[in-house]
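Bumping my old thread because nobody answered last time. Still need a sequence for this structure:
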């Protein structure tokens, strides 16, 4: 099977623009495609066989000529490709760049984003969660940018519960909560996300063998 070329994208994109009343020409100056009709700003379309930093850089550069800049890429295949494509569409929205996909086999062109000014919608809930996690995390136990295991507020709370049980033995969750200041200690030990705790009676927990090992790793 012959690999797809940028020139394969041009006929469908040209036809799509012509149906909307534009005169279309390829390779005008630095632009792959230019479409124009009287009384409207020109449309510039950059063609690529896949998303890349180069494609985005070219599209941003064309914004010095017109606000109506699109990128056109082949339609994705498979769930993983769709996920990557969707992420790139989101990035293009933030840059004010339009996105087209082209199904070359039948010439179908689909617009996934128009080149419009973008304003990020802030999430008050996510901001609150971020600041809460920041204030509750003791010290600065992580290295920024790490891709390995990291210390979270939840893990710190679990370690504090484990330390308490290690010293005091089996204890009621309510007493652990009072002694450690972790209000949800009972729930944390009941859910037992790390496997560190064992329930020995109603609301009473002790440290498991896994918990003992984990604690020694953190304190050793």
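Sorry it took so long. Here it is:
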């Amino acid at each position: 099977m012959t690999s797809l070329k940028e020139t394969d994208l041009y006929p469908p994109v040209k036809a799509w623009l012509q149906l909307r009343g534009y005169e279309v020409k390829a390779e005008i100056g630095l632009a792959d495609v230019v479409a124009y009709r009287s009384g409207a700003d020109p449309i510039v379309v950059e063609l690529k066989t896949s998303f890349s930093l180069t494609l985005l850089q070219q599209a941003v550069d064309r914004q010095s000529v017109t606000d109506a800049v699109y990128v056109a890429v082949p339609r994705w295949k498979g769930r993983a490709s769709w996920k990557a494509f969707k992420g790139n569409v989101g990035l293009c929205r933030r840059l004010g760049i339009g996105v087209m996909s082209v199904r070359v086999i039948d010439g179908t062109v689909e617009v996934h984003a128009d080149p419009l000014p973008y304003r990020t919608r802030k999430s008050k809930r996510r901001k609150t969660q971020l600041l809460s996690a920041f204030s509750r995390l003791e010290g600065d136990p992580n290295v920024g940018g790490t891709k390995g295991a990291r210390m979270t507020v939840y893990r710190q709370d679990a370690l504090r519960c484990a330390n308490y049980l290690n010293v005091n033995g089996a204890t009621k969750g309510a007493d652990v909560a009072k002694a450690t200041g972790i209000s949800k200690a009972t729930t944390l030990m009941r859910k037992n996300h790390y496997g560190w705790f064992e329930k020995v009676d109603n609301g009473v927990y002790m440290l498991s063998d896994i918990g003992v090992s984990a604690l020694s790793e953190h304190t050793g």
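The two ends are 59 Å apart (CA to CA). Let me know if any region looks off to you.
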